[in-house]
Amino acid sequence: MENSNDMQSRIVKFYSRESNLLALHAIPGHFATSHSHINYYVDVTSLKTRASEAKEAAKVLMAHMPRTTFVDTIVCMDGTEMIGAFLSDEIERAGIMTTNMHETTYVVSPEINNNNQMLFRDNNKAAIEGKHIVLLLATTTTGETIRRSLECISYYGGIIECVASLFSTIHSVDGREIEVLFDKEDVPNYEAFSAHECPFCKKGHRIEAMVNGFGYSQL
């Protein structure tokens, strides 16, 4: 069985077209997400965990965001809270207003229960209900996580102003645009397939790891 060091040895770095301070790491292979099979695992860990990169990522994302009157809350998925915090600074610096009583932006994350359902506990509902929301994700392939997130936020009464993803292979979900830091053009030959159409599976190649916005687990 291939070990983690072997996978790490295949890492390729791709720099942002908008900032040479930002780079994502990609590992070629055969991987499975919860909704698709992919030929690259795209790792955005450094963007989420290094303060300098998270700050720069927030700055670039802010330049992409549509100008809106209000932003009250940033809902962070996949461990993007540090970027969310820096993004809240950029939003306030840009003069975008908030309806929050404390005149500052909330940064929150939903809870994922054992049935893979998203929910906000009573102590966080006030950050969603009637609030103007930016949804921030780490990686997007099929858009299913965005759909579930939008349904959850809508259920709790939130008003979506913007959807942003650090890496995405798509630029819209159900007619709603996704603002992206990196897309599939930044990772040459990146492909995503449904499980029953995966060419690797058809050739009998085993899946190397299960992956999501938090990382990978080798099989």
> What's the number of helices?
7
Helical content class? 25-40%
Radius of gyration: 18 Å
Q: How many beta-strand segments? A: 14
Largest sheet geometry: 6 strands, mixed
**Class inferred from helices and paired strands:** alpha/beta
Report the mean per-residue pLDDT as an integer: 92
Low-confidence stretches: none
Oligomer: single chain
Structure description:
The protein has helices spanning 4-8, 45-49, 51-64, 81-93, 122-125, 144-155, 199-202; strands at 12-15, 23-32, 37-43, 73-76, 106-108, 111-112, 118-119, 132-140, 159-168, 172-173, 176-183, 192-193, 209-212, 215-218. The N and C termini lie close together (9 Å). The strands form 3 sheets. Strands 1, 2, 3, 12, 13 and 14 form a 6-stranded mixed beta sheet that branches. A 6-stranded mixed beta sheet has the order 5-4-8-9-11-10, with helices on both faces. Helix 3 packs across helix 4. 26% of the residues lie in helices and 32% in strands. It is of the alpha/beta class.
